[in-house]
Amino acid sequence: MRIPKHIGIIPDGNRRWALSKGYEKKDGYESGLPVGLELFKICKELGIKEITYYGFTVDNAKRPKEQRLAFTKACVDAVEMISKEDADLLVLGNDKSKVFPKELSPYTERRTFGNGGIKVNFLVNYSWEWDLGLSDKIPQPLKSSDVSRVDLVVRWGGRKRLSGFLPIQTVYSDFYFIDDYWPDFKKQHILDALEWYNHQDITLGG
Amino acid sequence: MRIPKHIGIIPDGNRRWALSKGYEKKDGYESGLPVGLELFKICKELGIKEITYYGFTVDNAKRPKEQRLAFTKACVDAVEMISKEDADLLVLGNDKSKVFPKELSPYTERRTFGNGGIKVNFLVNYSWEWDLGLSDKIPQPLKSSDVSRVDLVVRWGGRKRLSGFLPIQTVYSDFYFIDDYWPDFKKQHILDALEWYNHQDITLGG
Predict the structure, then answer these.
(1) Could you give the CA distance from residue B141 to residue B133 in angstroms, rounded to a whole number?
(2) Does A173 touch chain B (CB under 8 A)?
(3) Confidence (pTM)
(4) pLDDT in tens, A170-181
(5) Taking CB atoms and an 8 Å cutoff, what residues of chain A touch B206?
(6) What pLDDT was estimated at residue B1?
(7) Does B94 reach chain A within 8 Å, measured CB to CB?
(8) Are A137 and B139 an interchain contact pair (Cβ–Cβ within 8 Å)?
(9) Which residues contact B84 (CB under 8 A, 6 or more apart)?
(10) Do residues B87 and B114 touch, judged by C-beta distance below 8 A?
(11) Contact A67/B at CB under 8 A
(12) Is the Cβ of A203 closer than 8 Å to some Cβ of chain B?
């Protein structure tokens, strides 16, 4: 089986999941944590070399404050959780903004935790405009230059779009969309995605 | 019904269509021409303001010469065909390369044909690296700065990826994928895509 080297994860649908359970929107985010760790462990076991989680974006941070605080806390908790595993961890996003959580500043350069062995990138207060530096006066490398080409993007929550996720690394990615909300993650989702990916040809535009 | 302003068209599957009919790969491209015109007319009637067709890319141009000549001719024919309609037409791509067809040089600045009224962009010898100018020494606007944000990308041929199609304009696009090969285009494909799009929420990352 041909396993992707790098999987991009768009864990969407937390708020809709919360509403469907009778909770408030803000209460959906923490429910994504255990499944995020489960996904990490599955990927590690399968020999995937790199995972990027779409945490939150500069655009997301304009949502109501109680939601922003909730998804920020979920991201901090998620990064701290992965830091207890064997991983080469990087938090990537605009850390000069006041909405970037200070707790994550120590992670903005890649560091190995435990025995490392899998690159894990967490996009936190990320924005594609920031990444590309389209408004920078002097050309400079992508802010995400330490993030590899993404082979497979998997998005939960039924929407079929990238929503600004790493536009350069995803130019040739295959996209797999799952209707279930992210907190309803099941191992079978990722196995189905990999099975599907295994049958795609890879041309890289050629 | 909420109609997208700008639709991106990835007309994939020409070679597989040709093989399925017992033709040579190179013979698939011309079959995409009449359906491309049909699609243009449908979009115009529906009030869509802009269409971008993914013609061929710098990567595609590395394919065997007989294929390159065939898809280049199909692009030239397609542009000349649209130029007989009412359209504001632009051909966008690296026109300094020797594989860029000279016949299309007059179209590399947007011009109005007939009564105009719909922007039609044709990507010919396009490349996302060229568009973004990532290797340029002085920052400059996108080469595609006259191409608007794409609301909906429709891809024929069963693959679920962008293959380098306008990475900046598609950051928030919704994606609709059709298994049929492009030469098997039917009006119902685009009606189904628009019906689906009508039920998507638009958040632009918010």
Answers:
(1) 8
(2) yes
(3) 0.96
(4) 999 999 999 999
(5) 59-60, 62-63
(6) 86
(7) no
(8) yes
(9) B113, B114
(10) yes
(11) no
(12) yes
Contacts of A65 (CB under 8 A, 6+ apart): none
Any B CB within 8 A of A202 CB: no
How does pLDDT run across A40-62, given as a tens digit for each residue? 999 999 999 999 999 999 999 99
The terminus-to-terminus CA distance of chain A in angstroms comes to: 22
Instruction: Of B52, B41, B48, give the one whose Cα is nearest residue B2.
Output: B48
Q: Under a CB-based contact definition with an 8 Å cutoff, are residues B18 and B24 in contact?
A: yes
Q: In the structure, what pLDDT confidence band is assigned to residue A97 with cuts at 50, 70 and 90?
A: very high
Q: DSSP letters along A152-199, please? A: EEEE-SS--S-TTS-TTTTTT-EEEE--S-GGG--HHHHHHHHHHHHT
Gyration radius of chain A's alpha carbons: 16
Whether B167 sits inside 8 A of A168 (CB atoms) is: yes
Residues B140 and B137: their CA atoms lie apart, in Å, by: 9
Nearest to A172 by CA among A148, A196, A155, A142: A148
CA B184 from centre of chain: 16
Write the pLDDT tens digit of every residue in B148-199. 999 999 999 999 999 999 999 999 999 999 999 999 999 999 999 999 999 9
Q: How far apart are CA B80 and CA B103, in angstroms?
A: 9
B136, B174, B204 ranked by CB distance to A160: nearest: B174
Region B14-26: mean pLDDT is 95
Report the mean per-residue pLDDT for chain B: 95
Q: Is the Cβ pair A164, B174 closer than 8 Å?
A: no
DSSP state letter for B131: H
Is there a contact between B70 and B112 (Cβ–Cβ < 8 Å)? Answer: no
Q: Which residues of B touch A206 (CB under 8 A)?
A: 59-60, 62-63
User: Would strands B152-155 and B174-177 be described as parallel, antiparallel, or unpaired?
Assistant: parallel
Residue A206 is nearest to which of B59, B128, B174, comparing CB atoms?
A: B59
Tally of CB atoms within 10 A around B148: 15
- Per CB-CB distance under 8 Å, the chain A contacts of B57 are 205
